[in-house]
Amino acid sequence: MNPGHVQDEWLMVQVANGKREHLEPLLRRYAGPLSTFIDRMIGDRHRSEELFQEVFLAVWIKRRQYQFPRPFKAWLYAIALNNCRAEFRARAGPTALPLDDSSIAAPLAPEPSPADTAIATETAALVSTAVTRLPAQQRAVVVLRVWDGLSYAQIAEIVGRTEATVRSHMHQVYGTPIPFTMAV
């Protein structure tokens, strides 16, 4: 096990025992990746920031429910995913959302031509739009696997499904072409 994960779990045990000063290092450590995950799930930066705060409030409120040595990251992301699902229900379902600049992949060439930049931007927008059109469960699996680089086992724990189901979701996404309409 990675020493960083051990430290996360140790910090969470301290938080579970009511030592709130140990919550800050966890909040700082996961601020970037968790905010990005929530934003990719929700697609609304302002609401994503609110949900991020709600997730860490839930961590504090549910601190006694944390079961050591369960990986903290999986527990945290499960709370975040549940909050995203609640948001979807409140909105009556997710909608296609525009791509923000932070989601555009860095170009491979050191100095891309304007045409290459335009193609990369359009491709990133199409991929982002396609991901936001996926059902919430598949979207969570894709975002956690592709952008957060989690293993199938970690994703299974976060989404509360078996590893086989998680793999099936990825296969459904990659095995079935997602229809794109390109503007000419």
Number of helices: 8
Query: Hey, roughly how much beta strand do the residues contain?
Result: under 5%
Ends apart, CA distance between termini:
50 Å
Task: Give me the strand/helix succession.
Answer: HHHHHHHH
Low-pLDDT stretches are 177-184
Query: Oligomerization state of this entry?
Result: single chain
Helical fraction: 55-70%
Q: Taking Cα atoms only, what radius of gyration do you get, to the nearest Å?
A: 18 Å
Describe the main β-sheet briefly: none
Shape: globular
Number of strands: 0
Structural class: mainly alpha
Instruction: Give the averaged pLDDT, no decimals.
Output: 82
Provide keyphrases for this structure.
184 residues; 8 helices; globular
